[in-house]
Amino acid sequence: MESYRMLISGKVQHVYYRKCVSQALMKLGLQGYVRNLENGVVEVVARIYEDEFDTVLGILEKGSPLSKVSDISTEVLEDDDIIYDGFEIRY
Fold first, then answer.
1. Catalytic residue, candidates 5, 18, 39, 90
2. Active-site annotation holds for 5
3. Is the pTM of this model over 0.85?
4. Are 34 and 18 in contact (CB under 8 A)?
């Protein structure tokens, strides 16, 4: 299991993107969070098994019915020693 930080750009704020993504990732049983950044990007930090990675990317690309994702950048967090309690929306 790896910890990832993903930055999602496009029309992803004020369109229920965080809610849709968080509900889908909770159903997968992932740990982490989703939050809006001040620059209009949405950040997702999650612990993901390798065989779930493509599923997670699909969820992030789909988003909400009103969202339009233009880019997703991904990085592995090497020193992520935070203990997450499920998946949450952070404000």
1. 18
2. no
3. yes
4. yes
